[in-house]
Amino acid sequence: MKLAAVDIGSNAIRLQITHVTHHQAQINFKKLEYVRFPLRLGKDVFHSKKISEESREKFIKLMKAYKLLIDLYEVDDYMVCATSAMRESENGRTIAQQVKQDIGLKIQIIDGNREADLINIALWNYIDHKPYLHIDVGGGSTELNIYQNRQKKASRSFKIGSVRSLDHRESPKVWKAMKAFIQENIDKKHAITCIGTGGNINKVFELSKPRKNKRYLDFEKIKEIQAYLDSFTFEERVNVLNLNPDRADVIIPATTIYLTAMEAAHSRRMIVPDVGLKDGVMNVLYERNKDKA
After folding, report:
1. How many domains does the chain have?
2. pLDDT, tens only, 221-270
3. Is 162 found in the same domain as 38?
4. Which of helix, strand or coil describes residue 277?
5. Are residues 6 and 106 in the same domain?
6. Which end of the chain is less crowded, N or C, counting CB atoms within 10 A of the terminal residue's CB?
7. DSSP H helical segments within the chain, as ranges?
8. 73 with 166, same domain?
9. Which Gene3D superfamilies match (predicted)?
10. In this structure, is residue 216 part of a structural domain?
11. Angle (CA) 284 285 290, round 5°
12. Is 177 found in the same domain as 253?
């Protein structure tokens, strides 16, 4: 069985095609294709509330390309999810309808709670009975989830994101509300561990040069990597550190969001499992198709 997930984010748009196989009682997910295209829809939307004509044309071409790959791989089922940029855009739903009519690709524009739920599905293997704060930083929004005893205690989406932060488009009140949400919902009697998801924290983790099988970062190490990144100019982050241009400018403000949330929770450690929205989508697709496999 072949499944495809498309994640239409504010900073980039990702496609993953996965082959699911069964051997006895074991289920295997093998990645067949992964494409990440740096189309920054959030740049338009967070400035003018609309996706520009230039971005719309590129987006249509990209959806055609992704649909061709989905067809060529003979995918059995797919899901396309669009997050904060498209849901805040005045013309996002019109563009989604155009894609459905002209290309035959159905786009679901999901809210922050649904986005968090999909990511949480992929996180389940990393959560036990201890308290956890899950922080997912995207280009336009940050989703927070608080867990205790393998139960979600609280969840909320905030209009704070890496692309939005570039031009300080977020309100100071939103930062204050995010900190208050964390402090009001954590159990201060017990130390809480954070779980960080998103492309920027994955890159911070990679730059930390972790030991084999280590999947966590200490608070001080994250601050150290941020200071290291900040010691380079944008051009140096691209040419010396070999970061993609659309990563090189947002990674520092994104790291600030993770650190701010950790500080509010008085957390000293973050697990970085390298999963995201597309992984949750894959799990949903598998569950609704497993009887056909």
Report:
1. 2
2. 999 999 999 999 999 999 999 999 999 999 999 999 999 999 999 999 99
3. no
4. helix
5. yes
6. C
7. 41-48, 53-72, 84-88, 92-103, 112-123, 162-166, 172-185, 199-207, 219-230, 234-239, 245-248, 251-265, 277-289
8. no
9. 3.30.420.40, Exopolyphosphatase. Domain 2
10. yes
11. 105
12. yes
Instruction: Give the DSSP letter of residue 126.
Output: G
Provide the residue range defining the domain that includes 67: 2-112+288-292
- Region 101-110: mean pLDDT is 96
Q: Considering only CA atoms, which of 2, 33, 8, 12 is closest in space to residue 99?
A: 8
- Does 282 reside within a domain? no
State which amino acid sits at residue 41: L
116 with 170: CB under 8 angstroms?
no
pLDDT of residue 292: 73
Provide CB contacts within 8 A for 279, sequence distance 6+.
Answer: 5, 119, 121, 122
Label residue 293 by pLDDT band (50, 70, 90): low
Same domain, residue pair 105 and 157: no
Q: What is the pTM of this model?
A: 0.88
More confident residue, 210 or 194: 194
The two three-digit tokens of residue 57, written as one number: 């044309």
Residue 111 CA to residue 100 CA, distance in Å, equals: 19
Task: Read off the tokens for 22.
Answer: 């069964």
Write the CATH number for 28: 3.30.420.40
Quick: pLDDT tens for 113-159.
888 888 888 888 788 889 999 999 999 999 999 998 888 899 999 99
- Count of CB atoms within 10 A of residue 285's CB? 22
